[in-house]
Amino acid sequence: MLPRFLLLYGAMFGAYGVAAPFLPPLLARDGLSPTAIGIVLAAGTAVRLLAGPLGGRLADRSGRAPLVLAGLSAAAAVVAFGYGAGRSFAWLLLVSVAHASLLAPMTPVADALALGSAEAVGGFSYGWVRGAGSAAFVGGTLVSGQLVGRLGLGAFVGANAALLLIAAFIAPIVPNRMAGRRDVGGDIPVAEDRVRVAPRARLGPAAPAGPSPIKTLLGVPGFGRLMLVAALVLGSHALHDGFSVIRWQAAGMSPTRISIVWSLSVVSEVAMFVLLGRPILRRIGAAQALMLSAAAGALRWGISACTAAFPVVACSECLHGLSFALLHLAVMRLLGAMVPAPLAATAQAFYATVATGAMSSLVTLASGPAYGRLGPSVFWAMTLLCVAALPIALRLRGFDPEEEVGATHR
């Protein structure tokens, strides 16, 4: 069971890794201005607001999430070749929208599948799977840096498509246990080394089979505040994703150094998922972990506004483990506590696309003209987004199932 998920996440996140650092420079090479790059990237992010929940809902309603995931991955592999087929603004905009619409539901559906198996008897830690994905992202980024250094910016396109095709072949063989996360009317045995699900999530009534699952989700206590915290902190990463590499290139970094500093951020992510995240969550709780993530993000973007020196950037990128990975683990824990099992994939898609996607889309759209006019100082605005998340995260205390377990034993 675990090896199949490790292979799936390795292929998926390896595909993301080879493309993430060098897609914006590819657009710049094709003659797009900073504003046009912002529009292309923002359009891809914006379409996730619709495509992500639709894909998640399709996985929930069909009961065949692995096959849905396989189809999305195969189609995304085909569309990826479009980045190498033309250089006009209109064509690149079309490819970006099509590619993003297929990629958007993939990680949420995979996360829902992995969490379902992790919660089964004899399950595994979700962090192991997500950490393996992050490690594959690092490997993909390092390989991409070598390919780009030797063959040019377009070299990562074929690698991205090949890895997505591999994921499409692996997806149908992973277990489909999303519907088995809860046994209504009684507890299910739960493995100890996993993100725990609060008793109210396992024993509560099934979600209504009405026409508006999103409305049901928004009515879940604490869900809206959790999504807002995720939107502010993760949305602040959009400027980094779109323009950090362009800035580093302007400062004279080589493709190899760029791949190294980008990989360092994901190495810190792997360490958080595999080694540090669970002990931190146990020690301080999910709400405080969200606050720590927001504070780390504020520090990271403040450093980015001040310098692009390679040693300093290498250190600041290591804050990614806190600003992203720890936040993600805290969100996973709280979603497991809040959301009824029949809405598992829908909630994951809402988190990954609507909540964080809406803010990311707005930030990406604004970042093009803002970066073109203000340069690196625009990162101070991202610091403000993280600071704004702090008081909201504080209000999520009491929703952490680990806190409930600790209170019971006290």
From TrEMBL:
It is found in: Cell inner membrane. This is MFS transporter. It comes from Rhizosaccharibacter radicis. Its main location: membrane. The keyword Transmembrane applies. Gene3D superfamilies: MFS general substrate transporter like domains. InterPro entries: HcaT-like, MFS_assoc_dom, MFS_trans_sf. The keyword Cell membrane applies. Keywords: Cell inner membrane, Cell membrane, Membrane, Transmembrane, Transmembrane helix, Transport. The chain crosses the membrane at residues 35-55, 67-85, 153-174, 222-240, 260-277, 289-313, 319-337, 349-371, 377-394. It is a multi-pass membrane protein. Residues 8-380 form the Major facilitator superfamily associated domain.
